[in-house]
């Protein structure tokens, strides 16, 4: 179901969760790429579900003071396109993101997300971890809501790079964080993320413009 957006500009919700900052860094590039198209970009952070004491033991905690508003089901409902960013937890999204998904039952019952567009970016500890599986294992959520996934394919040649350790796949941007998280997104990773935000927003804009023709 389309939003009530009559501006002619796509509303792009960038909804992400970041434990150690890797996804946060990719998100900023995704936002930059989306904004460059003239889209109305609305960033949101997924609510942290772990207590402060646990996060401190994990040497984390930045997720308790997010830069952007907390995502709610309404954030998905008002958007024409949704870009979800989440780290890999055993080849799937973490519990924090699943909690947001679980709160969308009302949207499902109303068919409120049917026909909207979605894309995804992620991070993983190694080169052969969840760069693709995290997206694939989220497809049931997309399918049940009738969301249309928009992959980037190899529209950015850097996706196919093999000369250095990097993330990125035909499904979307990603980064290699290492098991202890000491690696940060590379320039190539950020380039792919910016491209994804740009490519996705232009794709959704075509649909939004089409609605205004009639």
UniProtKB/TrEMBL annotation:
N-terminal signal peptide: none
InterPro entries to which the protein is assigned, alphabetical: Flavodoxin/NO_synth, Flavoprotein-like_sf, Flavoprotein_WrbA-like, FMN_Rdtase-like_dom
A Pfam family the protein falls into: FMN_red
SUPFAM superfamilies given in the database record: Flavoproteins
Record domain Flavodoxin-like: where: 12-208
Similarity section: Belongs to the WrbA family.
Record protein name field: NAD(P)H:quinone oxidoreductase, type IV
Organism: Kwoniella shivajii
């Amino acid at each position: 179901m389309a939003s009530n957006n009559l501006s002619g500009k796509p509303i792009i919700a960038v909804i992400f969760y970041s434990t150690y900052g890797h996804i946060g860094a990719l998100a900023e590039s995704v936002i930059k790429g989306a904004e460059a198209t003239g889209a109305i970009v609305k960033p949101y952070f997924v609510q942290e579900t772990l207590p402060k004491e646990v996060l401190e033991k994990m040497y984390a905690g930045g997720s308790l003071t997010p830069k952007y508003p907390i995502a709610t089901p309404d954030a998905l409902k008002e958007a024409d396109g949704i870009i979800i960013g989440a780290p890999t937890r055993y080849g799937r999204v973490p519990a924090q993101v699943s909690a947001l998904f679980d709160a969308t039952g009302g949207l499902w019952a109303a068919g409120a997300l049917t026909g909207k567009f979605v894309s995804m970016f992620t991070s993983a500890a190694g080169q052969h971890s969840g760069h693709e599986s995290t997206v694939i294992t989220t497809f049931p959520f997309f399918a049940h809501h009738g969301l249309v996934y928009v992959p980037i394919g190899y529209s950015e040649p850097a996706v196919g790079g093999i000369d250095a350790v990097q993330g990125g796949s035909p499904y979307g941007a990603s980064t290699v964080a290492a098991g202890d998280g000491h690696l940060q997104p590379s320039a190539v990773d950020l380039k792919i993320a910016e491209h994804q935000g740009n490519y996705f927003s232009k794709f959704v804009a075509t649909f939004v413009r089409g609605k205004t023709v009639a």
